[in-house]
Amino acid sequence: MQFLGQLRLKNQFDGEPLLLLFMCQNNPSLCDEWDANADGNKVVSVAVDLSNLIDLIGYANMRKIFLSVLVLALVSPIVFAEIECTDRPECWPEGSSMHTGLLLVQQQKAVDKLLASKHDDLIKLVSSSSSGGIPVDGRLLAALKTQQAAWLKYRAEECELIGSLTGAGGTWPSTYANKCELNHSEQRLRRVRSAIRCIEKIPLEKRSFEQNNCLQQLAPLTNK
Questions:
Q1: How far is residue 109's CA from residue 182's CA, in Å, rounded to a whole number?
Q2: Is residue 174 within 8 Å of 165, Cβ to Cβ?
Q3: Would you give the end-to-end CA distance of the chain in angstroms?
Q4: What would the pLDDT profile of 93-148 be if each residue is shown by its tens digit?
Q5: What is the dihedral of CA 58, 64, 65, 71, to 10 degrees?
Q6: Contact yes or no for 77/60 (Cβ under 8 A)
Q7: Which pLDDT tens digit goes with each residue over 23-35?
Q8: What confidence score (pLDDT) does residue 74 get?
Q9: How many angstroms separate the CA atoms of 77 and 197, rounded?
């Protein structure tokens, strides 16, 4: 939660609560902070009763203390963010959009990390497939890298559409979009792994000529 500011309801030292205002910023795409009913905003009421201290330390010192507390609150929102748990699935009710969405985000990060590693392995494998004086196909390597970057962009944009098409309220469209991205990533990971296994089965002296057949599966929209 990002600390926005604080409000008092009445006079300075009458015991009325201090209202602390927060807005979700840890996962902006999941928060829907513009929706008053989506739990993307928080108002925390803190009991403040400093009147009993005035007689002991004097009004002037009391004013200095209050100003110090005010400055601390403005420059140290992390203190309040730690109290208000928002960035982990366990911070939200099980089955809610935020709980489900954050679980999906955790899974997505793990799959994306593995996908990036395996795609790098694929690039290295293709780079080492030349033999008998045949140079590495630079155009093929460049195409593989470009297509992976384009695929990541396509995944995000298609899944944003999928989330929007649900017509759900609150943060659920973002949650459905996260589920869509996870499904795409897992499918892509299976294809990259399959391509690697396929190439590794080809004898080294034949890879330069036959590996392209293994890579066709990385373009499923064309090669149906």
A1: 9
A2: no
A3: 46
A4: 888 999 999 999 999 999 999 999 999 999 999 998 876 667 788 999 999 999 99
A5: 160
A6: no
A7: 776 555 556 665 6
A8: 56
A9: 50
**Please, what is the Cα angle at 178 between 176 and 181, to 5 degrees?**
110
Six token digits for residue 117:
């590693």
Is-contact 192 122, C-beta < 8 A? Answer: yes
> Mapped to the 3 state alphabet, what secondary structure does 137-153 carry?
CHHHHHHHHHHHHHHHH
> What pLDDT, on a 0 to 100 scale, did the predictor assign at position 53?
41
Exposed e or buried b for every residue in 177-187, given b needs 16+ CB within 10 A?
bbbbbbebbee
Block residue for tokens 């590996």:
211
In 3-state terms, what secondary structure has residue 18? strand
Place of tokens 């897992």: 186
Q: Which two tokens stand for residue 164?
A: 């929007």
Query: Domain spans of the chain?
Result: 2-87, 97-218
Give percent of the chain above pLDDT 90.
46
Amino acid at 15: G
- Distance separating alpha carbons of residues 69 and 13, to the nearest angstrom: 14
Q: What is the mean pLDDT of residues 208-221?
A: 91
Fold of 97-218: Substrate Binding Domain Of Dnak; Chain:A; Domain 2 (1.20.1270)
User: Which pLDDT tens digit goes with each residue over 45-55?
Assistant: 766 655 544 44
pTM: 0.62
